[in-house]
Amino acid sequence: DAGITQSPRHKVTETGTPVTLRCHQTENHRYMYWYRQDPGHGLRLIHYSYGVKDTDKGEVSDGYSVSRSKTEDFLLTLESATSSQTSVYFCAIRTSGKRDTQYFGPGTRLTVL
Amino acid sequence: AQSVTQLDSQVPVFEEAPVELRCNYSSSVSVYLFWYVQYPNQGLQLLLKYLSGSTLVKGINGFEAEFNKSQTSFHLRKPSVHISDTAEYFCAVSDSSGGTSYGKLTFGQGTILTVHP
């Protein structure tokens, strides 16, 4: 599992409230990613990071922001949650070199009422 | 930009039968290719990957896939499935050409494999 944890694992919130999801890794990987999974869409990239304080947008970044102040933590924030952001959120890290592969965390199920 | 199409959203099959899950991709640059499996209520697990070298790659649980550059395909196969193979399977592609944006995965929509006794 590449030492990835996500918190919380489940969250129910109301429309308009801010929400922060945390991804924590223990192996000092440079690259980290946030995806959302929705039926019929597979996984779609929200934001990614290529180092501390270095982040960039993915395919579905509207309504989301991220921060990475330490190598091990990558935070995803929904500033004002909407029902369309109800989804399962996965964090991933990427190993480098010949083992270039992404490994995923266990996921966070977020419900916005 | 890349795109991935998984040609079957659902594949029902009987136990011990062979199965093929089809994946086509589109990309203007060289790519890495991956298959992930997701069991119910779990995260994604890497099944196999193609980075370079032999176009036939073998993965865990008896699965294999073949990279066909001319047909831009990366179909997943298993000669004899088990009930425990019931899961959703995702094909994914990433840009292998370098730079800070490389490594981002683009996923297909997923194929639900259901193995019946």
Please outline the helices and strands.
The complex is a heterodimer of chains A (113) and B (117).
Chain A: E1 4-7, E2 10-13, E3 19-25, E4 31-38, E5 42-51, E6 54-57, E7 64-70, E8 73-78, E9 87-95, E10 101-104, E11 108-112
Parallel strand pairs in A: 2-11
Antiparallel strand pairs in A: 1-3, 3-8, 4-5, 4-9, 5-6, 7-8, 9-10, 9-11
Chain B: E1 3-6, E2 10-14, E3 19-21, E4 23-26, E5 31-38, E6 44-50, E7 56-58, E8 64-68, E9 73-78, E10 87-95, E11 105-107, E12 111-116
Parallel strand pairs in B: 2-12
Antiparallel strand pairs in B: 1-4, 3-9, 5-6, 5-10, 7-8, 8-9, 10-11, 10-12
Q: Could you walk me through the main structural features you see in this protein, from its secondary elements to its overall organization?
A:
The complex is a heterodimer of chains A (113) and B (117). Chain A is globular and about 45 Å long. The termini of chain A are far apart. In chain A, 0% of the residues lie in helices and 60% in strands. In chain A, the strands form 2 sheets. In chain A, strands 2, 4, 5, 6, 9, 10 and 11 form a 7-stranded mixed beta sheet that branches. In chain A, strands 1-3-8-7 form a 4-stranded antiparallel beta sheet, with no helix packed on it. With 113 residues, chain A is an all-beta fold. Chain A contains no helices and 11 strands. With 117 residues, chain B is mostly beta strands. Chain B contains no helices and 12 strands. Chain B has strands at residues 3-6, 10-14, 19-21, 23-26, 31-38, 44-50, 56-58, 64-68, 73-78, 87-95, 105-107, 111-116. In chain B, strands 2, 5, 6, 10, 11 and 12 form a 6-stranded mixed beta sheet that branches. Chain B has a 4-stranded antiparallel beta sheet with strand order 3-9-8-7, with no helix packed on it. Chain A binds chain B through residues 1, 31, 33, 35, 40-45, 48, 50, 54, 56, 58-59, 90, 92, 94, 98, 100-107, and chain B through 4, 6, 9, 32, 34, 36, 42-46, 49, 51, 90, 92, 94, 96, 100-101, 103-110.
